[in-house]
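In line with agreed milestones, the collection of sequences with tokenised folds has grown. One record among many is set out beneath this paragraph:
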Amino acid sequence: MIRSMTAFASVERAASYGTLACEVRAVNHRYLELSLRLPDELRVLEGALREAVGKRIARGKVDLGLRLRSSAGNGEVRLNDRLLDRLTDLARDCAARMPNMQVEFTELLRYPGLIEQAEIDTDALQADVLSLLDAVLNEFIAAREREGEKLRVGMLDRLDAIEAVVAQVRVWLPDIRAALRRKLDARLGDLRDSADPSRLEQELVLGLQKIDVEEELERLDTHISESRRVLALDDAVGRRLDFLLQEFNREANTLGSKSVDSRTTQAAVELKVLIEQIREQVQNIE
């Protein structure tokens, strides 16, 4: 299924230790470029996160952010009794020396290490993060596929238009060849009496061959069929389509260079316009 490279998804989950939130956003890029924004507690997961994203996303400039908000008032805060006893002894000693000394309870709580919080189960946290990432990527890829379907429909419409132009040129070709033959006959008419008739006929054939575009039209038909096949693949196809468009453009340029009729000249211009419209859409495809 065709996927756009532009998308956004965000998921948040509550756990016993707090709330985990993850968001993923992406824009167009030639390759996969992943930027991570992680809290300190989750930096150990950077490698696993990059691997998980790389398995499911092929292209795009991707920003992935994770947030961890610890729960407040969950009853898990406690004092370091051993440290408190040491501070108490120290306070008594200081009070004997400085009777007027006062220590505020709130100031005491700021002493490093006096307040202890229950440690988070690291294994459980990492498992939760990877599970959350999987859920976010599901939503992210679904958003890419929805946008990709719109792009696919637009590209198929333009391929239909290219096919119609190719078919119309084929209808014109017999008339164009006949008109060119009449024109060449008229130009060579004054020379027929003094030149070898077989030689004149050879020149006429060579002239017709130079403006023959049947081979280019056949290749355009082949590229149209291949593009439709690629658009039906369940894979990242952006680079493949980009290559096909180069081939489309080559045939359109050749058709224009061989043109001896305003109709085929206009057809070549129309083909280039349609090809460029498809190229603009392909730039958004993974």
About this structure: The chain has three domains: 7-73+125-145, 77-117, 147-282. Residues 122-188 form the longest helix (67 residues). Residues 7-73+125-145 form a domain with the Ribosomal Protein S5; domain 2 fold (CATH 3.30.230.10).
